[in-house]
Amino acid sequence: xxxxxxxxxxxxxxxxxxxxxxxxxxxxxxxxxxxxxxxxxxxxxxxxxxxxxxxxxxxxxxxxxxxxxxxxxxxxxxxxxxxxxxxxxxxxxxxxxxxxxxxxxxxxxxxxxxxxxxxxxxxxxxxxxxxxxxxxxxxxxxxxxxxxxx
Length: 150
Hints:
Lipocalin, RNase_H2_suC, 3 helices, four-stranded mixed sheet
């Protein structure tokens, strides 16, 4: 059988601001050790930082309306007679983060920003439409096509 996951979401989580860095950490570096090599400044419209002497530029990205991000950590997994379950616990939540890139600030075409657009689009696609809204839209289309000269 396929494994499953259980996420325990605690109440009263602290809000944090996260950073999505374009680097790979080879080992489990603590944030304190990483902050020793981090210098950040705020400019108009974007942030700028140096990490290990390398220029990074960042842009603050908000999550779509109605969404919240969770920082989770695994409590380990256990195997029952039927399946393997993984336990997760939340530590904090966020509603925005800073997206970093090398040398230039991430643009609207950045893949992560584009992925977040799908959340809002999915809500629009899956929202129920009433009969009245459909009729109103049809009337608007009919009135527009009637005014076009033939």
